[in-house]
Write a structure and sequence with these properties.
This protein is an all-alpha fold. Helix content is 82%, strand content 0%. It has a domain at 47-147. The chain has eight helices and no strands.
């Protein structure tokens, strides 16, 4: 009688035995990794230029998005709310919830989201470019023997 706490998947796994991996599994995985690394070496050499181009494109788009965000903030009245707070702090003390509610309602959230998304893309591209540049530099520092395919 089957165990009532086992579902079909559990019953299937209970009927199967332990599978022993082949003895040469580690050697085969390492050999395959070496072959894959040798095949992808030309692509790695081109990657710094690709990442540099993506970085410049992300930086230019950040400049455009930040400019658009500034225009949208100037047109939405957010600057007026901030200048009122700068000139008279009693508004914030008397009704902080109303002030922050008005400030949050006046922000152009689509522009703010665009800037933050572009900053995230810029961070990812920067991280990848630094990683590839570090790999390329360590490969060149190791000498020609390290760059030769094995």
């Amino acid at each position: 009688m089957p165990d009532p706490q086992l579902d079909d998947i559990d019953a299937l796994f209970a009927r199967t035995g332990l599978v022993e991996p082949p003895e040469d599994l580690l050697a085969r995985v390492i050999a395959q990794a070496r072959v894959d690394g040798a095949l992808n070496e030309p692509a790695v050499r081109r990657s710094p230029a690709l990442y540099a181009g993506a970085y410049v494109l992300a930086l230019l788009s950040l400049a455009v998005l930040a400019y658009e965000l500034g225009l949208a903030i100037a047109g939405s009245g957010t600057t007026s709310l901030v200048s009122v707070l700068a000139s008279d702090g009693t508004l914030l003390r008397d009704a902080p919830a109303a002030y922050f509610g008005a400030l949050l309602a006046s922000l152009p959230w689509l522009h703010v989201a665009g800037v933050f998304i572009d900053l995230a893309i810029l961070g990812v591209v920067t991280s990848l470019a630094v990683r590839v540049a570090g790999t390329a530099r360590s490969s060149w520092a190791a000498g020609p023997a390290a760059r030769a395919p094995s």
